[in-house]
Amino acid sequence: MIAVKSGEPPDRIVQPGARVAPLPERAAVAARAELRGDRAGILGAIGMSALSGSRLASARRVHDHWSLLAVMERLEEAFRVLARLPITTRPRGYVNSMPYYVCDRGDLNAQLETRELERMAQLRNRVRIPPTPAEVARMEEALHWPAAFLSGAEFHHVARAVNLGSLWSALDSDIDAGLKRIKLTRRTFNVRKLQGLRIILRELVRRRVPIR
Fold first, then answer.
1. Residue-wise pLDDT tens digits, 13-36
2. What residues does each domain of the chain span?
3. Over the chain, what is the mean pLDDT?
């Protein structure tokens, strides 16, 4: 049971018997957690956030050494972080200048029956959580690998397979539809992707790039 004293601000809500750290100390701990990419230590409105069981709280696995799996996971993570950045991917089109439509009770009842009201509420309540500085740093490093290690003309199709494969896996896209669009068989695509991952792995090991 959380102990709350009457008139106390939210940052003073604590568990019985727990030590309450000063706000500057908690802010410093939260800043260091943000730089490490640790979401569990972020300072929320009522104290440290406990995100156990959520997707953000899932521990990120750091491999002991470079492997094909480690390279593939880093590339997929890079594309997931890229999708979370607050950037526009295309020019802004025409916008609607009409005034906001006010629904009456009949419209709201009809939307409730067709579940349209629930769908619009979910769209309005969707929150984009920006990536941490540590995630952005890993993203920039990983996205540079295909351009740096597969830059030759003979590796054009290999680099494309590595990037597309990582992008599709990161965003849970329909791989069969993507392969049909670029007119490639899954076997050829997998061979090219595996070749590119092996080249990247070889260069990372040869250059002694630290794994993180």
1. 445 555 667 777 777 777 676 666
2. 1-59, 68-87+131-206
3. 79
